[in-house]
């Protein structure tokens, strides 16, 4: 098993590419169900990523249903690829979603929410290790965003696959997860 980010990224992109639509739906539902026991439901503002279907990311539709069923404030983002910054918006019935040039579904506009108001962030990832380090696509959007959040903001990775033992090339600026949830288990860091 590789241990550096570049090789792990490639390995997990290939594993994800091999998943069928049925597997993605089944595993995404299992991930959402495994969120239920987490001690997060007294919080108000939950940031959720909308999946890039073409990259076979965890389908967060089940997470969205869970959050709206619990009457939570749901926050989604728009990414600026020049500054690598994310702007966050409240997801309401009136929110219009449009895919950007990278196939990321994003809000067109809406009520803006500051990073400092967000209580829980569901973080997309390709791989993670048993220490809570994660690997994304390498653009640094989430590390930058998570650094803007309050220290007590709960960071939860969502993954189809289990943890690797170690990621060797972790940077100081990489923000660790508090939890990672897979279809099979909950990792606590």
TrEMBL record:
Taxonomy, superkingdom: Bacteria
Cofactor: Mg(2+)
Binding-site list for ATP: 5-9, 134-142
Known catalytic reactions: (6S)-5-formyl-5,6,7,8-tetrahydrofolate + ATP = (6R)-5,10-methenyltetrahydrofolate + ADP + phosphate
Annotated signal sequence range: none
EC number(s) given by UniProt: 6.3.3.2
Gene Ontology annotations of biological process type: folic acid-containing compound biosynthetic process; tetrahydrofolate interconversion
Entry keyword Signal: no
Database matches in SUPFAM superfamilies: NagB/RpiA/CoA transferase-like
Residues annotated as binding substrate: 52, 57
Transmembrane segments: none
Keywords, sorted A to Z: ATP-binding, Ligase, Magnesium, Metal-binding, Nucleotide-binding
GO MF term (any one): ATP binding
Family to which this protein belongs: Belongs to the 5-formyltetrahydrofolate cyclo-ligase family.
UniProt name for this protein: 5-formyltetrahydrofolate cyclo-ligase
């Amino acid at each position: 098993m590789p241990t550096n980010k570049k090789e792990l990224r490639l390995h997990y992109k290939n594993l994800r590419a091999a998943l069928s639509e049925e597997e993605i739906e089944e595993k995404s539902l299992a991930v959402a169900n495994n969120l239920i026991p987490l001690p997060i439901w007294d919080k108000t503002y939950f940031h959720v990523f909308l999946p890039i279907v073409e990259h076979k990311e965890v389908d967060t539709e089940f997470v969205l249903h869970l959050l709206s069923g619990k009457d939570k404030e749901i926050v989604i983002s728009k990414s600026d690829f020049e500054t690598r910054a994310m702007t966050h918006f409240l997801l309401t019935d009136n929110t219009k979603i449009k895919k950007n040039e990278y196939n990321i579904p994003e809000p067109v506009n809406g009520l803006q929410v500051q990073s400092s108001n967000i209580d829980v962030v569901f973080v997309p990832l390709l791989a993670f290790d048993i220490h809570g380090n994660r690997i994304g696509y390498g653009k640094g959007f989430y590390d930058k965003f998570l650094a803007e959040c309050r220290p007590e903001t709960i960071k939860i990775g969502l993954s189809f696959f289990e943890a690797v033992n170690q990621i060797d090339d972790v940077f100081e600026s990489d923000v660790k997860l508090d939890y990672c949830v897979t279809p099979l288990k909950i990792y606590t860091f």
